[in-house]
Structures are given as C-alpha cells and as structure tokens.
C-alpha cells in the first residue's frame, strides 16, 4: 500500500528543469519549454490537468536569431486606448529587457486557457548564468539544447585541426615562387635630388 502512494507522488511531482538558451533560437526553444511547462512530456498529460513542471532558463541575454530577424521581427502591443498601438523591433526590446523575448515567445506558445498564467509562474528566466542558490538547489534535470553550439576556431586544438579531413592535396610542383627580389631588381631606382 505504501509503495503505491510513493509511486503516485513521484508521478505527480513537479520536476525543476534547466535550459541553457545560449546561442539558441527563441522561437524553437519556446515550443520545447512550453511543452515542459504544460507537462506534455509526461504520460499522464491531459490538456485540462495541471501536471506541468518548473523550467529555469539561463543565458537569455545570449540568444541567437537567424538571418535578419533581429532587425525585421517586431513585437506589437496595444494599450486598449485610441492610438495605443506600438511596435518594437526585436533588437531594441532585447537590449532593454533581455528576459522579455523568451517570456513573450513562451507565452504565445501556450494555449490561451485559464492555466496559461499558472504555467508562466513556473517559468524562471535569468539573463546570465547567475541563478539564486534556492532555485538552483531545486533543479534536478536539464533540457537538451535545440541547436548545436558552434565552436570558434581558437577553441580547436592543433590535433583537431590536423585531423580535419582535407578536400584535396596540393601537388608538389604547385608552388608560387617568391618574386619580390626579382621585382625589386626590375624596378628602376629612384633618383635622389
């Protein structure tokens, strides 16, 4: 009897997930985060039941958008009054509040039911890697990143660079001679006055 109760507790418990948003697309990431907030990854999921988990998002300041979306994508807002419509470019909104873009995209990916605000209260967004210890102490699992984080050239070791497959080999007779000495000999000397 007691074992069944423990199984039920572990099934209904809320897990704290960590998601690193560094170099990740906010639109693709928000779909995954919204699924974890709603509990879609659980076998007991139902659209009308509140079985979602907590998600802690770090490095929201370092998100990446493809092509020209930083310049062209706009967030719209209306106050409800006449002439209260405003549009803000993504780059300006992100420079003012680095956590707001993730929050807005996750909010738009959650269905507009009465549970939406409850789900959003379980989303904890931080602009950098500094997370309060009381929140970090609850985190017990990590959500895999959507995009692979690229390495810079200076992060590769010399062995990795040498082991990189070559597309073709230069032939030995393909050597460009250094003609600087010949050019200097062929140029007329400047006359000094």
Descriptive account of the structure:
- The chain is α/β, with parallel strands linked by helices and 193 residues long.
- The protein has a domain at 15-149: Ribosomal Protein L13p, Chain: A.
- 35% of the residues lie in helices and 14% in strands.
- The protein has helices spanning 2-12, 26-38, 69-72, 90-96, 100-109, 116-121, 133-136, 158-163, 180-186; strands at residues 16-20, 54-58, 74-78, 85-89, 123-125, 139-142.
- Strand 3 (74-78) and strand 4 form a beta hairpin.
Q: Write down the CATH topology of the domain at 15-149.
A: Ribosomal Protein L13p, Chain: A
- pLDDT average, as an integer? 90
Uncertain parts = none
Our measurement of the CA-to-CA distance between the termini, rounded to an integer number of angstroms, reads 109 Å
The top level CATH class name of the domain at 15-149: Alpha Beta
Strand order of the largest sheet: 5-2-1-6
C-alpha geometry:
elongated
Q: In percent, how much strand structure appears in the residues?
A: 5-15%
| Count of distinct strands | 6
- What is Rg? 28 Å
Annotate the secondary structure layout.
Elements: H1 2-12, E1 16-20, H2 26-38, E2 54-58, H3 69-72, E3 74-78, E4 85-89, H4 90-96, H5 100-109, H6 116-121, E5 123-125, H7 133-136, E6 139-142, H8 158-163, H9 180-186
Parallel strand pairs: 1-2, 1-6, 2-5
Antiparallel strand pairs: 3-4
